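LacI family transcriptional regulator
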Amino acid sequence: MEAITIKDIARALNLSTSTVSRALRDSYEINPETKRLVIEYAERLNYRPNPIALSLKENRSRVIGVIVPQIANNFFSNVINGIEAIAYSRGYYVIIFQSHESYERELATVQQVVDRKADGLLISLSSSTSDVSHLRLLQEKKLPIVLFDRVSSELAIPSVTADNFGGAFAATEHLILTGRRRIAHVTIPPYISITQERLAGYRAALEKYGIAYDEQLVRYASFGESEIGPIIDELLTQSPDAFFAASDRLAIGCLAALKKRNIAIPEAVSLIGFTNTPLADLLAPPMSTVEQPALEIGQTAAGHLIDLIEGKSGQLNSETVRIPTRLILRASS
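Predicted structure tokens:
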């Protein structure tokens, strides 16, 4: 089936092509009845703008580049769903890249975004990215960029994250209010922004209830499954009565390691994660966790980026949007 064009619509409705074009753009110059006729006819024949023609006319590709550490991660998959929903509704398409938690891969994928002439970039930093000069260079070249989830305070760039501090505070406070005092915190590499924010929330809850912060109860892990067992063994020497993990992936690893060592959950120790993976409710016992609003993060980040691309958000230069989290209590705590 041949794609219908603006000329076809104009011919069928006995209008000029410029009138049809302006009606489809919702121009104030076209009266409402003409707009209604044009839009109804276009929808009935499934009219879609020609992306190549649009990009030539507007000097835009109508494409957004998205870089995530890993697609095979429920959180990032849901973020991408949110990004794509907003992008499609506003006439943009999305190309997705993975850094696989590698700084070198991140550099290469950022260059791919530039080479493909994307109109803007949405990026969540890899766990090995501490140098953000590659993004600063793009910023100097006026490429619209929005950071999400894992961000950098070194860049004056709009950012969208969950309220990591608030979520960690709520999780730790819940453990304290249920009588726990030796709360271990298993977290991800220390230079990632979400690590710092969640650790700060954990420490603030301890301080509120007069519990001294103990560095011996905090351990940093990367994303390797083999790390968790030795970390649990080290922490058990400190007699913890609860574990707060900075991600559900780590929390599931803690759950498996504790069960392997015949430590009853929640009788001997409580456990809380952070993300709310779909598996959390299916575990034995079902796992308490902090829900990270992935879809909303994606939608908000995409909306901000498109506003920047279209020149609608001059005030967003370094704004950070923090979307509220929600503590979900299950049997593990």
